[in-house]
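User: Quick sanity check before I run a bigger batch. Here is a single chain. Can you write out its predicted 3D structure?
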Amino acid sequence: MRKWYRNSHYTIYNADSLEWLGSERANSYHAVVTDPPFGLVEYTAPELNKRRKGRGGIWRLPNAFDGAKRQPMPRFTVLNGHDRMGVLAFHLRLAPELFRVLVPGAHVMLSSQCLVSYLVAQAFCMAGFEARGQIVRVVKTLRGGDRPKFGDKQYRDVSVIPRSCFELWLLFRKPCVGRVIENLKRFGTGALRRPSEDTPFPDLLQVPPARRPERAVANHPSLKPQALMRFLVRASLPLGKGVVLDPFMGAGSTIAAATYLGLKSVGVELDSKYFTMAKSAIPKLVDLEVTG
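Assistant: Done. Predicted structure follows.
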């Protein structure tokens, strides 16, 4: 029996998101803001367990510097044909389920990675979504830029892959019924909410990584900063009403952002440890004062 928790602001489930989505009613949600696992081996239970124990596995363990110990990060450097088919197959299952449970005009904001984004986009467009562009978050990370494995001293002037200085979000929309203005009146969806009346929603954002206060309450390897999530979640509901869904909740950053904004949300997390973490972390993330 799956675990769940509900209050007046949100409901969260400890469940397999694909199975859970299959049990949900059609046209139930008004936006999706999520960071999926890409269906890669890094996020299988054995590898996550290695990561928790600090053993690494196929997780890269950055050196500590500046007095800070860096979080392990998954390697996305080499994908063979089997890996690519796995990514595509995962999203070919996910996209139709999201399409079904979303109302017309609903947007999907999906964190991705440049080596797999084209596969994700293919799956979502095949499911019937419209590709609506990309959102680029300018942020310097510790991913990429590595010297050759076992050759860092011999080949000090070499990088095997570019150092990542941005985070990619893919933007999709379920087609509207009629014109956008008609869809807005009927479903409250079909557009993005502006940061202000005079400022259009931009596709280039500069938001720093999650800082120590956030990681102290939500020690998740893919934690997104509240400054970013509050901005995206707010934009996803153009009229400020509806229900936001995060089918890969992690430590609950999307749910916390929605709660901070006074919006309803639903989250699903497969890993029982991260579900427990999210249950504790969400109210603490809501209370954090952050700057973008």
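The radius of gyration is 19 Å.

User: Great, the batch can go ahead then.
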